[in-house]
Design goal:
Blueprint lengths: L1 H13 L1 H4 L2 E5 L5 E3 L4 E4 L2 E3 L10 E3 L6 E4 L11 E8 L2 E11 L6 E6 L15 E4 L11 E8 L22 E3 L2 E8 L6 E8 L21 H10 L2
Antiparallel strand pairs: 1-14, 2-7, 3-6, 4-5, 6-14, 7-13, 8-11, 8-12, 8-14, 9-10, 9-13
């Protein structure tokens, strides 16, 4: 009987259905890159502010994994540059978050797309590409900061058939993903915007600003990842 129990527990631990409660990766650990605007910075990192927006020069003293990506003020906006992340999940409704620094209205957005070809990634807002805004909602602009803040993935007007992903609200819209492999592209939009870590969960209630997602560890689909998910109670 003891052997059967152990085998049953092991089968639960390695089951993809249990393994895919959340995924997480460091922003600097991208699988491909296009262009030069996304730089990798190691902490501590001195960054130029934005005098036009009243942001003084500042130092990023901490980052998950000791590094983050983005482009400093003065690098200019847009440009078509991107980074790509490859990941695998069990099919479900997924809620993505990014740990970002967005210190002003001129330094608070990126583009993103899921499951598109490299050649279709561009710095534009269309049926393929989305704008990921940080503090863009008028009521949130008092919160501009040079500290890291987790923001839910959102879009202004597509490609969700007119349904806006809610940045802060009672009914956030998930990204529906099928079983298997996927890609996330993040394309450059505004210099002075930085991203440290990306996190996704099937738990609509989970907010990494309230609970640090320490249990979301890499690599994906490994025993440590699954056991962390089980212990985390997601």
């Amino acid at each position: 009987m003891r052997t059967i129990i152990l085998l049953t527990l092991f089968s639960i631990i390695v089951s993809p259905a249990f393994a895919q409660k959340y995924i997480s990766w460091e922003a600097e650990n991208f699988d491909a890159v296009n262009g030069t605007k996304f730089e990798v910075f190691e902490v501590p990192s001195d960054q130029p502010g934005n005098a036009d927006e009243g942001v003084d020069d500042y130092t990023v003293a901490e980052a998950s994994g000791g590094a983050f990506i983005g482009s400093p003020n003065g690098a200019t906006n847009d440009g078509g540059d991107w980074v790509k992340y490859e990941f695998s999940v069990a099919g479900d409704d997924w809620h993505f978050w990014g740990r970002v620094i967005a210190p002003s209205i001129a330094d608070n957005s990126m583009y993103w797309a899921i499951d598109v070809a490299d050649g279709d990634v561009a710095s534009t807002n269309n049926a393929t590409m989305n704008i990921w805004d940080f503090f863009e909602v008028e009521s949130l602009r008092v919160g501009y900061t040079t500290d890291w803040v987790w923001f839910r993935l959102n879009t202004r007007d597509g490609p969700f058939k007119g349904t806006e992903l809610v940045q802060h609200g009672d009914d956030p819209v998930p990204v529906k993903l099928s079983d298997g492999d996927h890609t996330l592209h993040i394309a450059h939009r505004e210099d002075g915007t930085y991203i440290d870590k990306i996190f996704a969960t099937t738990d609509v209630e989970f907010n990494p600003n309230e609970t640090d997602p320490q249990t979301a560890v890499e690599p994906q689909n490994k025993l440590t990842t699954t056991w962390g998910a089980l212990r985390g109670g997601f």
